[in-house]
């Protein structure tokens, strides 16, 4: 998988580990050991890929306490950002906002992963806006963004784009066949449809700022701009 990412031009991979496996919390020392083994293997294979680990944390009542206990690995060395898993089916959107507020109160910014597949975000079109207003960062999956742009279909992702509510695009890679470590296709779609500066912000600048613990830059597309550019780009590609 790492070799696939390197061929795609990816220079840094965050290995996101779910906090719980088989109902048990995955110990941080175990993650550290596995990360060290992977880094050693990359060096042996001559891979120049940089890799770090972070915990993908579900929404839960004691999330702040677990951070304080060192059970959650942040995205950056200073602990400013953590990766927060979008709520599962049946969870109320209010839990998202409450969690964002609790995390921000202790100086932590949640990066909300793949809201496009979350029932809570799909059912409540204002939830992403409220979460961002409270301090969250929104991260969508590259394959979903690429499909939304290429198809020209209006949906959740185009709606988030139009309101400037997407800050980061990630691969969410799981394997080498279906959910692969590849960003270039979606980056190209985004650059052609919305402009290189938008693509660079979502795929490069903001991810780098998160890994450095710096504030993300807010995208500011307008509804008319996004809709017009995507529609025109889709028509042009279909005529080619």
Secondary structure topology:
Elements: H1 2-7, E1 12-18, E2 20-21, E3 24-25, H2 28-44, E4 50-57, H3 63-68, E5 81-85, H4 93-105, E6 109-113, H5 119-123, H6 127-133, E7 137-141, H7 142-151, H8 156-162, E8 168-170, H9 184-194, H10 196-211, H11 223-239
Parallel strand pairs: 1-4, 4-5, 5-6, 6-7, 7-8
Antiparallel strand pairs: 2-3
Helix pairs in contact: 7-9, 8-11, 9-10
Q: Could you explain how this protein is built, in words?
A:
The protein is α/β, with parallel strands linked by helices. The chain has one domain: Metal-dependent hydrolases (TIM Barrel). The strands form two sheets. The protein has a six-stranded parallel beta sheet. The chain starts with a helix and ends with a helix. Helix content is 48%, strand content 15%. β5 (81-85), α4 (93-105) and β6 form a beta-alpha-beta unit.
Sum this structure up briefly.
Helix content is 48%, strand content 15%. It has 240 residues and is an alpha/beta fold.
Which key phrases capture this entry?
single chain, 240 residues, alpha/beta, TIM Barrel, six-stranded parallel beta sheet, 8 strands
How large a portion of the residues is in β-strands, by DSSP E? 15-25%
CATH class: Alpha Beta
Q: Give the spatial strand order of the biggest sheet.
A: 1-4-5-6-7-8
Instruction: Write down the overall mean pLDDT.
Output: 88
- Count of DSSP H/I helices: 11
């Amino acid at each position: 998988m790492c070799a696939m990412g390197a061929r795609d031009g990816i220079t840094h991979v965050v290995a996101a580990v779910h906090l719980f496996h088989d109902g048990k919390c995955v110990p941080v020392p175990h993650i550290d050991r596995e990360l060290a083994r992977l880094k050693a293997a990359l060096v042996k294979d001559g891979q120049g890929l940089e890799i770090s680990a972070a915990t993908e944390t579900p929404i839960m009542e004691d999330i702040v306490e677990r951070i304080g206990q060192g059970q959650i690995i942040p995205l950056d060395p200073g602990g400013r950002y953590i990766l927060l898993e979008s709520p599962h089916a049946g969870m109320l959107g209010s839990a998202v906002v409450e969690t964002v507020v609790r995390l921000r109160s202790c100086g932590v910014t949640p990066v909300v992963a793949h809201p496009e597949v979350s029932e809570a975000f799909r059912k409540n079109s204002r939830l992403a806006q409220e979460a961002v207003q409270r301090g969250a960062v929104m991260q969508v999956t590259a394959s979903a963004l690429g499909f939304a742009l290429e198809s020209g279909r209006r949906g959740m992702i185009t709606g988030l784009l139009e309101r400037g509510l997407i800050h980061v695009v990630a691969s969410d890679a799981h394997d080498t066949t279906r959910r692969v470590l590849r960003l270039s296709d979606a980056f190209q779609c985004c650059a052609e449809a919305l402009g290189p500066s938008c693509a660079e912000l979502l795929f490069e600048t903001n991810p780098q700022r998160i890994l450095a613990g710096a504030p993300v830059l807010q995208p500011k597309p307008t509804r008319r701009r996004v809709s017009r550019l995507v529609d025109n780009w889709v028509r042009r590609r279909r005529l080619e």
